[in-house]
Design goal:
This protein is α/β, with parallel strands linked by helices. 51% of the residues lie in helices and 17% in strands. The protein has a single domain, classed as Metalloproteases ("zincins"), catalytic domain (Collagenase (Catalytic Domain), 3-Layer(aba) Sandwich). β1, α1 and β2 form a beta-alpha-beta unit. It is found in: Cytoplasm. One of its GO terms (cellular component) is cytoplasm.
Length: 165
């Protein structure tokens, strides 16, 4: 998968966010092989709460910032049917909000890099057609894919901390 990253302020230059994103892509491809199709392209924007707030209001009618938004360009059926030969195809766009990501990481006492990796994996699974809001069974399936992907990256299960609280 080709990944086009745009990193805007207030994301710190101290972290190689593009390398982190590529690592997340490679890990999720091992768990969800439909995302390994070489024709796929995805854009990932690291931005601010203000920008994601505007997007959330415009596209989801939710007047608040959120941690990650995904904008799929393919249906799950189209993704699964996509031949590996041919021109590039845009899978979709993912947008992350720095202040919300940092706040959530601090609340969970985890590194922002680990939390951001989780959110990138989460966003990619949404682009692949998974949706935790459809049903409890779909939420569980998506959660398990996230946990397996993060384990490949050496990142602890983010849901076990929720259950322990």
């Amino acid at each position: 998968m080709e990944l086009d990253c745009e990193i805007e302020a207030p994301w710190s230059a101290d972290t190689d966010w593009e390398a982190l994103a590529l690592r997340a892509v490679q890990a999720v491809q091992a768990i969800a092989p439909q995302l390994a199709n070489p024709r796929l392209a995805t854009s990932l924007t690291f931005t601010s709460d203000a920008q994601i707030h505007a997007l959330n209001r415009q596209w989801r009618d939710r007047d608040k910032p959120t941690n990650v938004l995904s904008f799929p360009m393919l249906t799950r059926e189209d993704l699964l049917a996509l031949d590996e030969e041919g021109p590039p195809v845009l899978l979709g766009d993912i947008v992350l909000a720095q202040e919300t990501c940092a706040r959530e990481a601090a609340q969970k006492s985890i590194a922002i890099a680990d939390h951001t990796s989780h959110l990138i994996v989460h966003g990619l699974l949404h682009l692949a057609g998974y949706d935790h809001e459809i049903s409890p069974a779909e939420a569980e399936a998506m959660e398990q894919l996230e946990v397996k992907t993060l384990a490949l990256m050496g990142i602890a299960d983010p849901y076990s901390a929720i259950e322990d609280e």
